[in-house]
Write a structure and sequence with these properties.
This protein has 294 residues and is of the alpha/beta class. It has two domains: 138 residues, CheA-289, Domain 4 (OB fold (Dihydrolipoamide Acetyltransferase, E2P)); 139 residues, Rossmann fold, CATH 3.40.50. Helix content is 26%, strand content 32%. It contains eight helices and 15 strands. Helix 3 packs across helix 8 and helix 5 runs parallel beside helix 6. The longest helix has 15 residues. It is globular, with a radius of gyration of 20 Å. Keywords: Phosphoprotein. This is Chemotaxis protein.
Length: 294
């Protein structure tokens, strides 16, 4: 499978039992397999169908339709599993069927409609061959099933000097996923950083430039890669081409676990790239960032 990076987004299109058409970033897909025999788990979450064994490893299988509020597949083994890998974990999404892979521009992906509500489970909407495709917010689905624990930081992991170095430094976080945004902010606030947060790349650019005026510029930008209208790669390019903010330290913080992301991040001018979510790794990345600014 070829995957375009940068302004191009490769989507795997699939349908739920209801016929609803959804897309998922192809970089998050490891493989597609027929639904295997499942073992039920005691006290399992109602949206988890069970576990499967895949090449010697245990795979949790989620009934995706039920997880986003639709009628599920019940006990049926019809359909297939989309095996996803993101944020340092792997899981199987049980869906009715996979259709095809398409490519679109991130500029053609729009944020979810304002009236979609907090349980929409989509990060954006685009149009493919005249059909509306909703892009799945898989992080939100997984958070509902297994909420992330509060970020725990062992103070001994950072030296006293490193803690002092971080305290009060100005950081902007941009992420279209409310779940990921909150995880990041919890960690940054525990470190004593001066944090602001926005939900889009355009808003990040506006705030970065606005903060130049009072003479207290944002020192570090922590940005997601996958965002509608303008992705993280495009955001970095815009920053590097804008003289007033070109020197901003940019850490790309992504659920996509791929060496391709690291290479592309470097190409567009990002200073560092990190896979979500580890409070410890994020803390150490911020120490690196602030030390480089000294």
């Amino acid at each position: 499978m070829s995957v375009a990076l940068g302004d191009e987004l490769s989507l795997l299109l699939f349908r739920l039992h209801s016929g609803r058409l959804l897309g998922i970033n192809l970089l998050k897909v490891q493989e597609i397999i027929p639904c295997p025999p499942l073992t039920r788990l005691p006290s399992h979450h109602p949206h988890v169908r069970g576990v499967a064994t895949l090449r010697g490893s245990t795979l949790v299988v989620v009934d995706l339709a039920r997880a986003i509020g639709e009628a599920g597949l019940g006990e049926s083994r019809d359909g297939c599993l989309i095996v996803t890998e993101l944020s340092r974990s792997r899981q199987g999404l049980h869906v009715q069927g996979v259709e095809r892979i398409v490519q679109c521009s991130t500029r053609d992906v729009r944020p979810p409609p304002a009236g979609a509500g907090g349980r929409a489970y989509i990060t954006g909407v685009t149009q493919i061959d005249g059909s509306i495709v909703q892009i799945l917010d898989i992080e939100k689905v997984l958070h509902v099933i297994a909420p992330a624990l509060p970020a725990e930081l062992d103070e001994q992991l950072l030296s006293e000097a490193e803690c002092r170095l971080l305290r009060g430094r100005r950081v902007l976080v941009v992420d279209d996923s409310q779940v990921a945004l909150q995880q990041t902010l919890v960690t940054l606030r525990k470190l004593g950083l001066d944090c602001q947060a926005v939900r889009s790349a355009a808003a990040a650019l506006e705030l970065l430039q606005a903060r130049q005026q009072p003479g207290e510029p944002i020192e570090v930008l922590v940005s997601d890669i996958e965002m509608p209208e303008m992705d993280g790669y495009s955001l970095v390019r815009e920053i590097r081409q804008t003289a007033s903010i070109a020197q901003t330290y940019v850490l790309l913080h992504t659920s996509l676990d791929s060496t391709m992301n690291t290479e592309k991040a470097r190409q567009v001018g990002a200073n560092d790239v990190l896979t979500k979510f580890s409070a410890v790794d994020l803390s150490k990345a911020l120490v690196r960032a602030v030390k480089s600014l000294a």
